[in-house]
Amino acid sequence: MASAWIKARQTRYAAYATLYIAVILAVLVAANFLANRYNKSYDATANKRFTLSDQTAKVVRELKDEVRITYWDKSTSFQPGQDLLDRYSNLSRKVHVEYIDPYKKPQLARTAGIKSVGTATIDIGPKHEEAKTFDEEGVTGAIVRALKGGQRTICFIQGNGEHQLDDSDRSGFSQLKTLLEHDNYASKSINLLQKAEAPSDCNVVVVGGPTTDYAQPEINALRKLVEEGGRALFLLDPPLKVRGREIAENAPLNDLLTSWGITPESNLVLDENPIGQLAGLGPQVPLVMSYENHPIVAPMKGTATGFPLTRGLDTKHTDKTSVDKLFASSDGSFATTNLGPGESSDPKTMKPGPFTLAAAGTYSTGQPNKQGRFVVVGNSVWASNGFIRFNGNRDLALNMMNWLSSDEDLISIRPKEQEDRRITVSRSQMALIRSVSQFLLPLIAIVAGIMVWWRRR
Length: 457
Fold this sequence. Notes:
Blueprint: H1 2-7, H2 9-37, H3 54-61, E1 67-72, H4 79-91, E2 95-100, H5 106-112, E3 119-124, E4 127-130, H6 136-148, E5 152-157, H7 174-182, E6 185-190, E7 204-208, H8 216-227, E8 231-235, E9 241-242, E10 245-246, H9 251-259, E11 262-264, E12 268-271, H10 274-278, E13 287-288, E14 305-306, E15 313-315, E16 321-328, E17 333-336, E18 351-352, E19 356-367, E20 370-377, H11 393-404, H12 427-456
């Protein structure tokens, strides 16, 4: 009897069904376990909009202390916070995310200093920071501020025709100032003519495209700054002598840089790069696609940068300095020394390239852990409002600041800006789309159905 029951068809079917159900349950349990333990996703957007940048990943993965990120909003509005902050917790087990409704727990909100919803705070030990904006730049910036323990200051020299820090025109540096603020840098203007000494709170001093000669007291202040362990960035345009753009030779400043191993040449580098022409750039804007292995440019492989109206640099080591090239123009570039009106652009009459366009150096002060650093670029327009958003220019500018301020751990490629990918169509194109979607496609489906029915009949 028992043997017959086991051999019965219903028994076999019940055993098969039980086995199938057990296998499906096991697969579901394993899938849920792996999903909770390993949160993986694929970002199919063109500019990786839903993937954290290399800079953020580098900062988070190298955390040594526990980090608590708290998102403050209504309980019904936690989803936007989860969409961003869960990516941080997936990068490191040291990141712990908490979601709090300030209306349900007002005492906690007051203690954290929360004044509006939809924001995040960062706590690392006793350090507490609030994100200036609730996006990747804001949250990562707050983590950096908590890690670094205070804001660093970039000082821009004024008084010799340099780019203005608060100027929003194409030639201004206002966008650079905004980018620096997102990277946790304060910025201010200084005048070495009024006081020939860099303020003590300046982590980096920037010489941003002067058009007139520096006075000797200014040169002495810059020399003292670097040779006593300070940091400086020099953006020096070629001494053009054309209508509307008169730039001085600035021999005293050139002599200072030459003593450190970097000599700005009195030439204009031109490059008829076909890739640059495809990007709408003329020969006066050399396009850089390859870089050396210096920490400033190492993460920029495959990222293009452009330098309108740039000069070449001659580099060498000295007994006190070590100089490294950052990047150069292409092999097809050439340079002219005729910087006045009516210059020739015939490559056959000019010096062939490539030419070094930027270099970084270190100055040995003779004291341990106190090293002067300086970066020289043969152009300043690349960092101005009209050009800093070009491809990798902003990343290059911020990487230079990070290296000069000894924040090498922050050097990377920043989050890409969201692209406007809307499609603009004309009225006739819209009518065509409507006709195809509302009439043609349904008609094709109906005809196909009739043909199938007729064949089966």
